[in-house]
Design goal:
heterodimer; A: about 110 residues; mainly alpha; 4 helices; about 0% strand; B: about 525 residues; alpha+beta; 19 helices; 7 strands
Chain lengths: ~110, ~525
């Protein structure tokens, strides 16, 4: 149970982290907000949160599995999370709209 | 030499990719399957689809008669590998002359199971990915080593020649023209899978470091390979007395070994030089709880049963090598990581295949205009390397479920017939690709569908383990997983074939000059 929850948490943190990093790029922000640029004031918070979540994923992986398996789990899960973000942006971009709303008001 | 650094890297990336891509795809494909080699074994050897026994394991001494057979055959060793969750049978083996004798034993009762007559995952698919089954002078291992070095060079040069690595990090423009779409897919899988692809190639080389980088130990040990192995792996060199000797109780030695490691589970029980007065018993410990591939072993004097030496824990100088080897060999128990490895292995296959497709898409028109045959040759190579090896593997599964046990043909036994099927089908896919260039992709996709569905249906017919049954029983989940993945593969291949046909049809419907423009 604990292992399952932590595994989902690692995956979710990787996914959300990369989703925020993607949204901080004009191309993907435009996709969802129809504005040409990601608002300048949103870029920094998006990136900090994004990298922060990737770091959180590492911590969670280490908590779940210890240094050996934890490091390995993180190093592979970041690829899975990033690929999942690409699939979302390609086929179901609207899934990320809540995230956009969260940062839109910063403009 | 190209004028700029980036141009030279581009040249390297292009040509190393085209020349070695087929080999790399084969290695990645087989390596990905090897992640589930023991599950494939159970699928291909229905007699081993057993439940793990809950009670005490059978006595090792009860297997003594086969030890006497091995001793009489003057086999250099006799051994058993204890059952695990992924391989619930006890495997016993020895040599008779040049051939390896293997027996599968039901751990709960000690009954010998019928000979499965297949090399299945652990003896065919898994060794294929590191030695290609070319044994002569280790040529296979060296070719794979070359491919692994090339893979790392391709990873690095790919990053260097990528024009917009950060802007395109998450970009996959699926609605664009084929060339853009393929390049996006290649870049995306390449960049996002980079840590895994680089690490898996590097760790593959590190496993065989004593072969690939012999100077590393030759200098320190004056070229004495055995002395190096003694130190690094703690191997105990058996020496033959040449006269017959007795053998102490197997169970007593196993119990003592277990005690040495605080009651740990045992992985194997080997006898070196069975029947000899100086035979040695080597007992290995099972450690699935850490990444490192460990090799803790205890050595006993066979005739007296006295402990000679034992090792607990990896010596510091080897610890990094064992960690890196362990992360490649995944002998540990971690199902999440096992599935992630499988997924990222497939991502690697996509990356290699799309690399080929991009080369073709960017040259097809030019080659046709100049009347060059290069694009057609490479296209055949691509089709045979990508869909070809998939079809060959699936035919290996399908023929396994259609041949009866003990089947022979032209003097070849069942296991050999399966392997012949694999190679002949693979060869046929190359021939097909060169003979029918316009239709080969679509037709081979349908062949994938046919073989994958046939494998699932044949498994049902010959074993009765259909999906509803295998999903309901925990010890058959490996079978359910294999069947489900085969069905997913069939569905994806069918979708691809339909999509390719639709595209071909629209292209044919548009007047020629317009189609040219659309394609450009």
């Amino acid at each position: 149970m604990r292992d399952g929850v932590l595994l989902l948490a690692v995956l979710a943190a990787c996914y959300l982290g990369f989703a925020m990093l993607a949204l901080s790029q004009d191309r993907h922000w435009y996709h969802l907000d129809w504005r040409r640029h990601c608002p300048l004031r949103a870029i920094l918070p998006l990136r900090m949160a994004g990298y922060g979540l990737l770091f959180a994923a590492l911590v969670l992986a280490l908590v779940r599995d210890g240094p050996g398996f934890g490091a390995l789990l993180w190093a592979t899960m970041i690829s899975i999370g990033a690929l999942a973000v690409v699939c979302t942006l390609t086929w179901w971009p609207s899934w990320l709209r809540p995230l956009v709303r969260l940062f839109q008001h910063l403009d | 030499m190209e004028p700029t650094f980036r141009a030279s890297m581009n040249w390297l990336h292009t040509w190393a990719g085209v020349v070695l891509g087929g080999l790399l795809f084969a290695i990645f494909w087989m390596g990905t399957l090897a992640v589930f080699d023991r599950e494939i074994d159970r699928w291909m050897m229905p007699m081993t689809r057993l439940e793990m026994p809950a009670g005490a394991p059978i006595s090792i001494d009860s297997l003594r008669p086969s030890h006497e057979v091995a001793a009489a055959a003057r086999s250099p060793n006799w051994g058993i590998i204890f059952p695990t969750e992924r391989e619930p049978t006890l495997r016993m083996s020895w040599r008779e002359g040049s051939s390896l004798v293997q027996r599968f034993i039901e751990p709960a009762t000690g009954a010998v199971l019928p000979d499965p007559g297949t090399w299945a995952g652990t003896r065919f698919l898994y060794p294929f990915h590191y030695m290609l089954h070319i044994r002569v002078q280790d040529v296979g291992i060296w070719l794979v080593g070359l491919a692994a070095m090339a893979m790392m060079a391709l990873c690095v040069s790919g990053v260097i020649i990528h024009r917009k690595i950060f802007t395109d990090f998450f970009t996959f423009r699926v609605a664009r023209k084929p060339r853009r779409l393929i390049l996006d897919l290649h870049n995306m899988t390449g960049v996002l899978g980079l840590p895994f692809h680089f690490l898996i190639s590097l760790s593959g080389l590190v496993i065989f470091f004593s072969l690939y980088f012999p100077s590393s130990w030759q200098v320190a040990y004056n070229g004495d390979r055995q002395a190096f192995f003694d130190d690094a792996y703690g191997t105990h060199r058996p020496q033959k007395a040449g006269e017959p000797g007795g053998m102490a109780s197997f169970d007593a030695m196993a119990a003592e070994a277990r005690g040495l490691w605080d009651g740990a589970t045992l992985r194997y029980f080997f006898v070196r030089n069975p029947g000899d007065a100086r035979s040695i018993v080597q007992i290995g410990r099972l450690d699935q709880g850490i990444v490192s591939s460990t090799y803790d072993a205890a050595y006993f004097d066979g005739p007296t049963g006295k402990l000679i030496s034992y090792r607990s824990g990896t010596p510091p100088v080897m610890s990094i090598q064992r960690f890196i080897s362990g992360l490649h060999l995944i002998q540990f128990r971690h199902w999440a990581l096992r599935w992630v490895y499988f997924g990222l292995g497939l991502v690697g296959c996509v990356m290699i295949a799309t690399g080929y497709l991009f080369w073709l898409e960017s040259r097809r028109k030019k080659h046709a205009q100049l009347g060059l045959g290069g694009a057609r040759i490479v296209e055949g190579l691509t089709i045979g390397s990508v869909t070809g090896i998939v079809i060959a593997t699936l035919s290996f599964f399908a023929v396994n479920r259609s041949l009866p046990l003990g089947a022979t043909f032209l003097g070849e036994d069942r296991a050999a017939l399966e392997i012949w099927t694999f190679y002949l089908v693979w060869l046929a896919t190359f021939a097909h690709a060169w003979l029918r260039p316009g239709r080969a992709w679509i037709e081979q996709c349908w062949a994938v569908v046919a073989f994958a569905v046939a494998a699932v249906v044949l498994n049902w017919i010959t074993t009765g383990d259909h999906l509803a049954r295998s999903l309901a029983h925990r010890h058959l989940w490996a079978i359910a997983g294999m069947d489900l993945l085969l069905l997913v593969a069939a569905a994806m291949a069918a979708l691809t074939a339909l999509k390719l046909r639709r595209r071909q049809a629209t292209r044919a419907a548009v007047p020629a000059p317009l189609a040219e423009k659309q394609h450009a």
